[in-house]
């Protein structure tokens, strides 16, 4: 079976884990955590980077940092992972869902302004497949109405909007290092803070509501309970693993882009059959997080996934519409989100991992091309 994903190890992970253990300090904010923070701040220009145990946790920190109170409204896509919005629902927010673009699963920024009310506090762009949302449009709306922007950059490492790194544009951004992402630590994440006024409080929230980070830096002579918070920081063992990956970021990205480009070259002709392929607005670049196709119908997708499986290839669909979920459908304001539903029904993701071999890619694309030639030549 060709799996959908296979976590890639650079070879240095175990060595750095060992070093972390030998350092004698394996709780949070040890030497490897600091190395990771510096890497991100220097390479991507985040004002402050804080490792967390997941992107979910980074988003939960963001919801606390922007002071979400019961009844506050948050504008977010419905075609996304649960955590994007659950983090805000935990603090009492009401989610106002925006539909996707017709040519891309990212949020349709032209629909946002009509959804803004006096209660709106945050816009959450999700950079689907690592492809940038229209951050200029979103930041303009945020400035006009005094809103916060929290980027869900879980899939968006090493991707850019008009040359600016994703995660460095909104007030806050969450990244994920879950084993399904480009750069991994098993579970893991990061909060990027671009509003320097939030840094001190972010450190406190991450350390159970205490000012322990300041204490360790010698800025205060004892630490105490100063705010709400939780235990959001990962062990330095996680950071050691992550640092091994970061050292190979160029290599990992280069390899993933090669695979992605081969898929694109082989499968672009399918557009004559109405199959929708990844689309890049001129402001976006490709970080090769994902290769997807959007089929013409759910039946077509089901048949394609089955045929791939019969040929030993695991392809998977993606999100179900959150506005129709068991938990939120009753709370949703009832608007139809047709593009969201279409991606939920028709989008399929193909295997994409470092060790995927060229002949495996050709095997996958041959099955898909054969499927469409048969289907449309009848
Ligand atoms: C993976 C992902 C998350 C969750 O990341 P975790 O690190 O597993 O918490 C959130 N949002 C999006 C868009 C994701 O792809």
Short description:
By secondary structure, this protein is α/β, with parallel strands linked by helices. It has helices at 13-22, 31-44, 55-65, 82-89, 135-145, 199-206, 212-216, 236-246, 249-267, 298-310, 338-346, 358-377, and strands at 48-52, 73-77, 94-98, 120-123, 148-152, 160-161, 164-165, 172-176, 189-193, 292-294, 347-349.
Report on the architecture of this protein.
The protein has helices at residues 13-22, 31-44, 55-65, 82-89, 135-145, 199-206, 212-216, 236-246, 249-267, 298-310, 338-346, 358-377, and strands at 48-52, 73-77, 94-98, 120-123, 148-152, 160-161, 164-165, 172-176, 189-193, 292-294, 347-349. The two termini are 30 Å apart. The chain is globular. Helix 3 (55-65) packs parallel to helix 4. It folds into two domains: 13-246, Aspartate Aminotransferase, domain 2; 249-377, Aspartate Aminotransferase, domain 1 (Alpha-Beta Complex). The strands form three sheets. It has a seven-stranded mixed beta sheet, with helices on both faces. The protein is of the alpha/beta class and 378 residues long. It is built from twelve helices and eleven strands. Strand 2, helix 4 (82-89) and strand 3 form a beta-alpha-beta unit. The structure holds pyridoxal-5'-phosphate.
Search tags:
378 residues, alpha/beta, Aspartate Aminotransferase, domain 2, Aspartate Aminotransferase, domain 1, seven-stranded mixed sheet, 12% strand
Tell me the layout of helices and strands.
Blueprint lengths: L12 H10 L8 H14 L3 E5 L2 H11 L7 E5 L4 H8 L4 E5 L21 E4 L11 H11 L2 E5 L7 E2 L2 E2 L6 E5 L12 E5 L5 H8 L5 H5 L19 H11 L2 H19 L24 E3 L3 H13 L27 H9 E3 L8 H20 L1
Parallel strand pairs: 2-3, 2-4, 4-5, 5-8
Antiparallel strand pairs: 1-9, 6-7, 8-9, 10-11
Bound molecules: pyridoxal-5'-phosphate.
């Amino acid at each position: 079976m060709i799996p959908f994903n296979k976590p890639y190890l650079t070879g240095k992970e175990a060595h750095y884990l060992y070093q972390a253990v030998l350092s004698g300090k394996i709780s949070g904010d040890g030497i490897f955590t600091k190395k990771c923070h510096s890497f991100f701040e220097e390479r991507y220009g985040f004002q402050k980077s804080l490792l967390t145990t997941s992107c979910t946790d980074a988003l939960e920190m963001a919801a606390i940092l922007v002071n979400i109170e019961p009844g506050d409204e948050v504008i977010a896509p419905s075609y996304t992972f649960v955590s994007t919005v659950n983090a805000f629902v935990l603090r009492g927010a009401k989610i106002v869902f925006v539909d996707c673009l017709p040519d891309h699963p990212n949020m349709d920024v032209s629909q946002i302004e009509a959804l803004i009310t006096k209660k709106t506090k945050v816009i959450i762009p999700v950079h689907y497949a690592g492809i940038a949302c229209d951050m200029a449009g979103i930041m303009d709306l945020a400035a006009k109405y005094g809103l916060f922007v929290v980027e869900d950059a879980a899939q968006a490492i090493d991707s850019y909007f008009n040359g600016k790194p994703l995660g460095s544009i909104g007030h806050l951004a969450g990244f994920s290092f879950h084993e399904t992402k480009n750069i991994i630590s098993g579970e893991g994440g990061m909060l990027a803070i671009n509003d320097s006024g939030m840094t001190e409080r972010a450190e406190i929230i991450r350390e159970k509501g205490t000012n322990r980070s300041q204490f360790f830096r010698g800025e205060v002579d004892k630490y105490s309970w100063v705010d709400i918070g939780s235990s959001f920081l990962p062990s330095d063992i996680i950071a050691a693993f992550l640092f091994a990956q970061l050292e190979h970021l160029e290599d990992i990205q280069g390899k993933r882009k090669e695979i992605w480009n081969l898929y694109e070259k082989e499968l672009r002709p399918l557009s004559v059959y109405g199959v929708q392929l990844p689309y890049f607005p001129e402001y976006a670049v490709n970080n090769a997080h994902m290769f997807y196709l959007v089929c013409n119908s759910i039946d077509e997708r089901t048949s394609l996934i089955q045929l791939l499986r019969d040929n030993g290839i695991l392809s998977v669909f993606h999100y179900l519409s959150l506005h129709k979920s068991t938990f939120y459908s009753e709370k949703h304001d009832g608007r139809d989100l047709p593009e969201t539903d279409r991606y939920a029904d028709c989008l399929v993701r193909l295997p994409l991992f470092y060790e995927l071999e060229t002949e495996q890619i050709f095997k996958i694309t041959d099955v898909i091309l054969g499927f469409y030639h048969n289907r449309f030549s009848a």
